[in-house]
Amino acid sequence: MLINCVLYQQGRKVHEIPVEEIGNWVGRGDSFVWVALKDATDRELVALQEQFHLHDLAVEDAQHGHQRPKIEEYGDSLFAVLHLLEPRADQLAVGEAHLFVGRDFVVSVRNAAEHGFADVRQRVEAEPELLASGGSSFVFYALMDAVVDRYFPILEDLETELEAIESQIFIGGAARSNVARLYELKRRVMTVRHAVVPLMEAVAKLFGGRVPALCAKTQDYFRDVYDHLYRVNASLETIRETIATAIQVNLSLVTIEQSDIAKRLTGWAAIFAVATTIVGIWGMNFEHMPELRWAYGYPFALALIGGVCGVLYFQFRRARWL
């Protein structure tokens, strides 16, 4: 679905134009066109490919989707894939943004994501000097910066949830549920990491050393994007390490709980084993057992059983087995 197709000239928005008139403005050198689409169809992508002479491989990637975050150079143009992450009911929905960037055009395609780029358009239009200087490259930076900035609230949510789980680690009986929650949290951390790490490697090629000519004037801005990605990745690594430690602690607590249960069972088994042994001696039914005819034999046997069991119970309590 086409959202808008806007012409920019000398850093300022001129007006929206029909897609069919794009060819009248491409190649003039003093203007560029920004086309925004949502869940673009193959027909729409092919139409834009004809207008902007997009590379076949880039268009194919945009049509198929499910791509790894990357930035590829095709002649004088760039093609980028970014992951769009949106929290939905304790899950992270993963969408994609496909960006085609040339000297006189920007095509942004948003797939499977609700949060659009209207705020990015407002931002670049509010900075006409930078837009005039950087042109389509500045729009490319602004789009990428917006996507990366949206990772920070997700990161804060992950840290908050991890702190909540940590506060319950030593609550009795919660170890198993904590492990389940930690593994679910770890899965979401890996989802964010899969969006960040490949993109960080790709953005590193847009500043310093040999960079695409399109990005020559905006290297400092892409370095800023890289710094943001580096911060996100560093925080993710810290969260991963904390999760691993918390899982080990919880597993240890489960083992300790099981050991405590085994000690209790062992203690009671020992107590009843002694009682069973004493009772079993007088239950052998031999004929010559003088104590069987003793008037106080039964009370004595009960007292003996109670006394021995009491001593064992006291000893087990001192050892904290019961």
Task: Provide a descriptive summary of the structure in words.
Among the domains are: 124 residues, Beta Polymerase, domain 2; 64 residues, Magnesium transport protein CorA, transmembrane region (Methane Monooxygenase Hydroxylase, Chain G, domain 1). The chain has a seven-stranded mixed beta sheet with strand order 2-1-3-7-6-5-4, with helices on both faces. The protein is 56% helix and 18% strand.
The CATH topology of the domain at 1-124 is: Beta Polymerase, domain 2
Q: Roughly what percent helix? A: 55-70%
First-to-last CA distance: 69 Å
What structural class do the secondary elements suggest?
alpha+beta
Q: Helix segment count?
A: 9
**Average pLDDT for all residues:** 90
If classified by CATH, what would the architecture of the domain at 1-124 be?
2-Layer Sandwich
Give, in spatial order, the strands making up the sheet with the most strands: 2-1-3-7-6-5-4
CATH superfamily of the domain at 1-124: CorA soluble domain-like
Topology record:
Layout: E1 2-9, E2 12-16, E3 31-38, H1 42-52, H2 56-64, E4 70-74, E5 77-88, E6 91-102, E7 105-111, H3 118-125, H4 128-134, H5 136-149, H6 151-166, H7 175-203, H8 219-281, H9 297-318
Parallel strand pairs: 3-7
Antiparallel strand pairs: 1-2, 1-3, 4-5, 5-6, 6-7
